[in-house]
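Quick one: structure for this chain?
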Amino acid sequence: MTATLRAGRVSLRVEPASVLLGAAAWAAALAVALYAVTVGDYPMPLSTVLDTLAGDGTLLTYDVVVRNRLPRALVGLLVGASLGMAGMVLQRIARNPLVSPDVIGVGAGASAGAVVMIVVVGAGAPAVAAGALTGAVAAAATVYAIAARGGFRGYQLVLVGIGVTALANAAASFLLTRSDRYAAKQAATWLVGDVAGRSWPDVLTVAAGLAVGAPMVLLLTRHLRLLELGDDIARALDGRIGTARAALVASAVGLTALATAAAGPIGFVALVAPQIVRRVLATQAAGLLPVAGVGALVVAAADLAARRLFSPDELPAGVLTAAVGAPVLLYLLVRVSRRNG
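Got it. Here's what it folds into:
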């Protein structure tokens, strides 16, 4: 069942089941993130956290909650939402469930760019984020330029992306072998992905990507539906579909790049989140709100589990998402292989 909201000449199709799933996912993600703020070396009741957020805390609780734990929780939520949306856009454009930013090389390009800035330039955090953004854009442009020659087919996109990923990972590994211990430790975050130690500038970085990317994807939703019909039909219905596709790819790359610049390449979230939504709703087209909510929930839950399962030690959140995402990728490969005979 679909409802249509109209405001003047602008209309928006809304599916109640999709909205319900999105609201439930966001509520769960916020609950997990809020609980994560209460636990750690200095545990505190939820009431103390809420009082601190309301401005009634002590200097100590302010330092723990606002300066340390809250940025980490917010970066996890925003990074998950960004990666979920980016994966949804690319999978629907390519009409292939295997296509996601980390599979087609965007995350690896961002990692390589960040490692170059750390190891070669010795730059600080803002320049490292700029390097990650540049690497992601360069990788995406390379993949797009090569894959577009064959009509932007899903499998061609995956194969080109695997090549670019291997090249970027090889470059990053080579640089690490030539770096000192301090630089290698600093660069490790950019190879795995983690939200530990994130600060408010990281929150602003990924929030800026969402502020631009999410509205762009929402405005181009109609074109996204046309692209799912195939290039020939989409071109017949809208002669400017090439421009719309380029804008959608740019939005997905921007969301991924700024999320990676804030937390490193947290793998498989972009791949898994749209698949969860598709299966829960039993639909081919995952919507923007539920995918963002599920992505936020996945990263928030992975970070909390990484902190608590091996306490007092912590694992990077990217390790847990990879441990869960890799079997999902294998499942999708087998499923697609069987479907194609």
